[in-house]
Every structure is written in structure tokens, then in C-alpha cells.
Amino acid sequence: MPRFSGLSLIALGVIVGAGGGYWYARQPTSTSVPTIAASDAAPAVERKVLYYRDLSGAPYWSASPKQDANGRDYVPVYEDEEPAFGPGGELRKPTSPKGGSRKVLYYRNPMGLPDTSPVPKKDWMGMDYIPVYEGEEQQEGNTVKISLEKIQRSGVRTEVVEARSIVEPVRAVGTVTHDETRLTVVTMRSDAYIEELFVNKTGEHVHAGDPLFRAYSPDIVTVQVDVRNGGSEQRLRNLGVPESHIREVRGGKNPMSLVWPAPASGDVIVKNVVNGQKVKAGDELYRIADHSQVWIVADVAESDLPAIKIGTRATVTVRAYMAQPVEGQVTLIYPELKTETRTARVRIEVPNPDGRLKIDMYADVVFQTGETVPVIAVPASAVIDSGQRQVVLVAKGEGRFGPRPVKVGRRGDGYVEVLDGLSKGEEVVTSATFLIDAESNLKAALQAFAQPERSK
Hints:
This protein has helices at residues 6-25, 148-154, 218-228, 234-238, 243-250, 433-439, 442-450, and strands spanning 49-53, 61-62, 75-78, 84-85, 91-92, 104-108, 116-117, 130-133, 138-140, 143-145, 157-160, 162-164, 170-177, 183-186, 192-197, 205-206, 211-216, 258-261, 266-271, 278-279, 286-289, 293-301, 313-318, 326-338, 343-351, 362-367, 375-379, 384-385, 390-397, 400-412, 415-420, 427-431. With 456 residues, it is α+β, with helices and mostly antiparallel strands.
């Protein structure tokens, strides 16, 4: 065994003596003061863990206990440590619970399932149930209760349900086209030879009765002779001969050629004849379009079609005259969709007395689809849409909120029509709905509404 030197023994004695003196000095002077047993100590205040943060201060968080890459445990952040913001946006320091303790009402499932326990327990994965304290959010059936402080901190806003007019103009782009009911084709019902053209340019404007061309037709001349010999004038009418020419024949004349008048007023958009040409019966010689009224054919998205009906008013603005819109109305919704764009063609008739609208002009169309009849409506931000069902959060007062399934209709001006599920005067949450979902575990309350209906 190693031997201790004399100096070492002296040092050891000094240390032991000093320690014994310190222990004696710390003992109570009276033996009447009882010693407090560990079992009689005041219980520690249970505090709700909101989340766990990285020990180094890096922006990493976790909803459950976790370790970083170096094996260090994440630090729990308790509810009374979470910073809050004052009314003016200033950061307020966390406050400890009043009185140092809070009453636990019950314990809820950590995964948000509708399962509570009056005593602490663990779920099937070994996760502790979360305590719910008095004054905190609590879920009773389909009603969620949130403390007023958290409502203010989360920026929850509500609005009273009212009746209002839903107006959402449907916008589309279109093209100016001919009014098909105002097109006229000029043709002859017998073979003929063109002797002279009076209208020899495409685009010329003509009036009804203006001469278009002079033609010689052997068939018409033959019938003229029969009419002069007592035959029926109806044969000339059957050949499309103008009444002015028939009157000449009736007066005893036998003109060898006839002047063909324009049957309607408008612009010549097609000209298929030249001087000296032989034309056959049925050939299209001219096509005349009356542009005093035109069509706007707009491409409307498939989703907007339910809002458009025959007679719906529309405002048309062409790029050349942005400050001069034209009013018209829908006269036809074509029965097919364009598969490439999933749009339907909608026809609008608009007046064009000054000829300002030119064929093939692009036009911006605004359909006035709004109705003046007020309907029950809520802000669009109040509707939680899962894709299968729509739900709103109804404010019941004193921090209590309940989900309500609704059936929605038209949308417009930031509001949604509610066809079923709400009544006028009820109050709905319009902002911070996702915060209510996160802080009060609203998913459990909404679970019943998210389940698909069973077929009967």
C-alpha cells in the first residue's frame, strides 16, 4: 500500500475538520423544529408544453420531445413562456399563472382524437395526454371554447350574417363577328353574261336598290317574249327578275339586258364577278353584310356558365375605343365547349349604327350577372372548404365557437351566398380560422363533418 507522508495526513485532517464544522454550523439551534419530509413538499405546478425548441436557438421546433444532431434534448417551451402581443403590436413578456397554480379540468388526446380522461394517461403510442386547464380552450361536443386572451392575441374577427346582393361580374374576351341574320347573297336563277359592273370593289357600301351589274340572260329574254304575248308575269318572278324590269316588259318594252339591283343595304364583303364573265344559275356573285348590328362571340369559362342566361346584359369594350363601351345582351349560349380551353361561346348582340365596331376586333366583355334580390351571405374568408364540404365557425359568445356545415352558392364582391346552414343575425368567424383550428384542436370537432355520409 502507498504510504502517506506526514504532510498529507495533516492536510487531510484540516479538510475533515473544516467540513465537520460547516455541517455543525448549518444545523438548527433548536431540536423542536421538525424536519419537513419530502412527501410533504408542495407539489410542482403543472405547466402546459406548447412545443419544443432547438437548444442552440436555431429556428427548429418540434411538437414532441426530440434531440438534435448532437444528441442534445430540445428545450420545452411552456404556455406561460410564449410571447404575446399587445393591442398596439408591442411585444409583451409572458406572465405566470395567477396564484402559481391552475386547475386541470381534464386531459385530452395528444393526436386530436375526441378522447379525454379525468386523470393523466398515455395513448397507445406512449404519448402523454395533454392537460386542459380551467380558462383554457375546451371542447364540449362540437363546441370549442378559447380564452378571451388567446382570441385577442390570435386576431380573431367575426361578422354578423346579413342579407346582401351578390354581384360578381363575369369577365371574358370575345371577337366582333357578322350578324348572320343580316347577310344577303346575290345570285341569279338563270345563266347569264355580265355586261357591266356598277359595284366592282369589295368593301363598298351599297343601299337597297342600288345597281350592282348589267347582265344578258337568254332564258329571261325568252320568257319576256311570252309575257308580251299574254303569258304570265309570274314566270319572270320565278327567275328572280326585279319588279322594275317586269314593269318595263308590262309597258311593251323588250329590253335585251337587265340591271340587277342590290337586294339589301350593307357592305360588300364578297365579290365573285368581273366584266364579261359568264355566270351560272346559283353562283354567288356578291355577299352583302349589314353592319348596323353585330355579334360579339365571347369565350366564357366553364365554371362561369351557370351565372349567364339568355337576356343577361353585357358591356362590350373594344381596344380601339376603350372609353366608349357598348351595351348588349346575350342571345345564345352555344351548345358545345372547346375541349382545348374548356370554354363555351356566348353570343351577344350589340348595336353598331356608326360602324365603329369592325369585324374581327377583339373585345373585353363584362357580363352583369348580379341579382338585386338580397340573399344570406358571409365573407369568403369565413368558409373553410375541404373540397367535399364547406364549414363555417359560428361564434356563440364567451369565447365559444362551433363548426357549422353550410351549402354555398354564388360568389361575388368577396362574399359567398349561403343556401343552407345559417340564419340572418348569427355571427361567424371571418379571420384567423386556421389559428382556432391549430390552438383549440378544432380538427376533432370537425371530424364528424369530415366523414363521408354512409349510403342508406
